[in-house]
Write a structure and sequence with these properties.
Radius of gyration: 39 Å
Largest sheet: 5 strands, mixed
Number of strands: 23
Structural class: alpha+beta
Helix content: 40-55%
Number of helices: 23
Distance between the termini: 137 Å
Strand content: 15-25%
Length: 699
């Protein structure tokens, strides 16, 4: 009885043990099959699959006419593919010697390259031998190694800027990040629209054997190219700006459509070449480039004192507040006295008696000192804000707000009250005032459109406008004054550009005390010239030129003069080309067939007298004569085509009934001849012409 009890206990213990072991096995199987099945499957696949990323082709950037500003070029790289052997064979070394004769390769002289070659040979790996092969090098490699499995040429795409430094601040550049193998946009449009330009990457699974040899490839995901960015820039106008801007000066130039805000040209100097950053650049070269701050976009992101440009705001505020009248007269003796201090005019001998319009045209300070004595700085700031100064234009680029001082601003920033004497300086655009060139472009445009427009660089951007809340009389006065600036004021030299409507304003803005201007270029004045321009039937545009520390607005005025002269040549050349294209254009509804009747004179847009003066009547039929083509459609009615031929014969007959001269009669008689006879005569004359040309060439 006791023995049976012990046996029963062992059996029970055995059952419990088996149950525990079975539970553990089942739990382990569940863990392997359910919890980490994907992980194990992935690890298993990695034993024979290699997944590589396929980089998409980056999108292009084009100007307003579809011409390339940033695109891609094909780059061919040469690789050596190992054979899986433990040592490099004699054939391998001979092949490398042949390659060394074509390419600047010196593998035998570098221990590291020899070690890399042996490893690639042993593990079926790839070794990069040369990059960016020329066409001649590719041709020689293809000729020497047409079917060599160890030599592989792979093609990739590299960013290309066809116009080098042109519009570099607008386009931007690509740069490398430590976390990214492919370059990404680091500035300008390349950075702002990085996601749109980059596209979507693809992937390819490569099946390999135990030796690492590639057996097959499977496309897992197709790569999608980036989108095209359509800008408002005009590369022809941009090239003019790049050419006429002084080479060694810093500053900005903007050409903007006055009505819709489309930027046709944006220049910032100093500039840089975007292609420099497609490859890694060393620290020393980077530091050297930073000395002149070439990466600062001075058109949007640099602030300057506006100088006399601000007088447009000052006189607007004075007229709107009835502080002055348009027909008032002013006398300038060279200075203005306020609380015992003399405030000088830029013309020390004085302008004499001037009207309000003349005072603005000649940029006489006395009028604006008088206004500054009577106007409140907060009122002046209010009208500056109406013109869009002191706030961003909301362009898609990074930009500065500038500065329009007020009583509250000075108390918060300086901890001081505002003095009325400071208003006199603000009235002529000095004091604490700061603006950006793009703000000035928008301000000048508003004087001629009646609204502030948001500058835009993409054709797809919406046109956003804000009404300029000034009286019509004030806006008309500003336009007349800016016209007088060109005709008899401070910008008379630009009036030499004829047959073009120009309204302008000059400015020489101080950067320091006048006593310091002889101490160095950095103490000299900034030069401005702005203009509203329209030529013939072209859309009006605003041009803004700002040159840093050049000392006189005459330099900026000369830049605009040079620009307008080249601009006229450009527009006239486009018009001539368009006329030539239209003159040589053949209507799509016609094409030449030998079996059909030539067109009558009335359908060729050529008068008989013009033909008689240049071409004998017997040689009137040429290759340019065309006849109606039967439409390539299944439901064409052949009878209708025949009727059209008959109609043309009738037109010829009616033309023959009204003789206008011997030459014309010969032409009409020629058209009345049977079609086959005319065709034979045309072939005979053509053959004679060809024979004569052949004899001339032989002679």
């Amino acid at each position: 009885m006791h023995l049976s009890s012990r046996t029963s206990n062992k059996i029970e213990a055995l059952k419990i043990g088996c149950a525990i072991i079975g539970s553990l096995i089942i739990a382990r199987l569940l863990y392997l099959q359910a919890s980490i099945a994907y992980h194990l499957h992935t690890r298993g696949q990695k034993n024979f699959l290699r997944v590589t990323t396929v980089q998409p082709t980056r999108g292009t950037i084009v100007d307003c006419k579809g011409r390339l500003l940033a695109t891609n070029r094909a780059v061919s790289d040469l690789y050596w593919v190992g054979s899986g052997k433990k040592i490099c064979s004699t054939d391998t070394m001979q092949q490398l010697e042949k390659l060394q004769a074509i390419l600047p390769l010196r593998i035998a002289d570098h221990d590291e390259r020899i070690a890399a070659l042996k490893q690639a040979e042993r593990k079926n790996g790839s070794l990069l031998l040369a990059t960016d092969l020329t066409f001649e090098q590719l041709s020689q490699i293809e000729e020497l190694f047409p079917d060599d499995e160890h030599i592989r040429v792979l093609t990739r795409f590299k960013r290309l800027y066809p116009h080098d430094t042109c519009a570099c601040h607008t386009l931007g550049y690509l740069g490398h990040l430590e976390s990214s193998t492919e370059p990404i946009g680091r500035m300008g449009l390349e950075q702002i629209y990085e996601r749109k330009l980059r596209g979507q990457s693809g992937s390819v699974a490569k099946k390999i054997n135990s030796f690492g040899k590639n057996l097959a490839e499977i496309e897992l995901k197709r790569a999608l190219s980036g989108h095209t960015i359509y800008t408002t820039l005009d590369i022809d106008i941009q090239n003019i700006a790049e050419t006429i801007f002084p080479e060694h000066e810093a500053g900005a130039l903007i050409v903007m459509d006055a009505k819709d805000g489309g930027l046709q040209a944006v220049l910032s100097r100093p500039s840089f070449n975007p292609t420099l950053f497609l490859d890694h650049i060393d620290q020393a070269s980077w530091q050297k480039m930073q000395e002149n701050r070439p990466f600062l976009n001075r058109a949007f992101n640099a602030c300057y004192p506006p100088g006399s440009l601000f007088k447009l705001v000052t006189v607007s505020a004075a007229l709107e507040q009835h502080i002055i009248k348009q027909d008032a007269l002013w006398y300038c003796n060279g200075y203005f006295t306020y609380h015992g201090r003399k405030y000088g005019c830029h013309l020390h001998t004085g302008h004499g008696q001037l009207s309000t319009c003349q005072a603005l045209a000649h940029s006489c300070n006395i009028l604006f000192y008088t206004i500054g004595k009577q106007i409140d700085i907060d009122v002046l700031a209010q009208y500056a804000n109406l013109f869009g100064l002191g706030k961003k234009t909301d362009i898609s680029f990074a930009e500065k707000e500038g500065l329009v001082p007020s009583r509250a601003w000075k108390r918060a920033a300086k901890g001081e009250r505002w003095w009325q004497g400071e208003t006199l300086s603000a009235a002529i655009g000095q004091s604490f005032l700061l603006v950006t060139p793009i703000q000035i472009a928008r301000m000048i445009g508003s004087i001629f459109t009646g609204y502030l427009v948001q500058p835009r660089l993409l054709q797809t951007d919406l046109v956003v406008t804000t009404p300029l809340r000034l009286r019509t009389e004030t806006i008309d006065f500003l336009q007349r004054s800016m016209k007088l600036v060109v005709e008899g004021g401070t910008a008379q030299r630009i009036n030499a550009v004829k047959n073009i409507t120009i309204h302008g304003k000059t400015s020489t803005a101080q950067t320091s005390l006048l006593q310091k201007r002889d101490k160095g270029k950095e103490y000299m004045e900034h030069a401005w010239f702005v203009a509203h321009v329209q030529y013939k039937t072209e859309r009006p545009f605003v041009i803004v030129v700002c040159i840093e520390n050049c000392g006189s607005s005459k330099i900026a005025t000369q830049v605009v003069k040079d620009f307008l002269q080249r601009y006229k040549i450009l527009i006239d050349g486009r018009a001539t080309k368009q006329q030539d294209d239209l003159a040589h254009e053949i209507p799509l509804a016609y094409q030449w067939t030998e079996a059909t009747t030539p067109l009558p004179l009335s359908l060729m847009n050529i008068t008989p007298t013009e033909q008689a003066a240049d071409t004998p009547a017997e040689e009137f039929i040429t290759d340019n004569i065309v006849a109606p083509m039967i439409p390539d459609e299944p439901d064409t009615d052949v009878t209708s085509v025949t009727d059209s031929h008959q109609q043309m014969h009738n037109e010829v007959s009616s033309a023959a009934a009204v003789p206008t001269g011997n030459t014309e009669q010969k032409q009409v008689m020629e058209h009345q001849e049977p079609s086959e006879k005319r065709t034979r005569r045309w072939r005979t004359r053509k053959r004679r012409t060809q024979d004569q040309q052949t004899e001339q060439d032989a002679g």
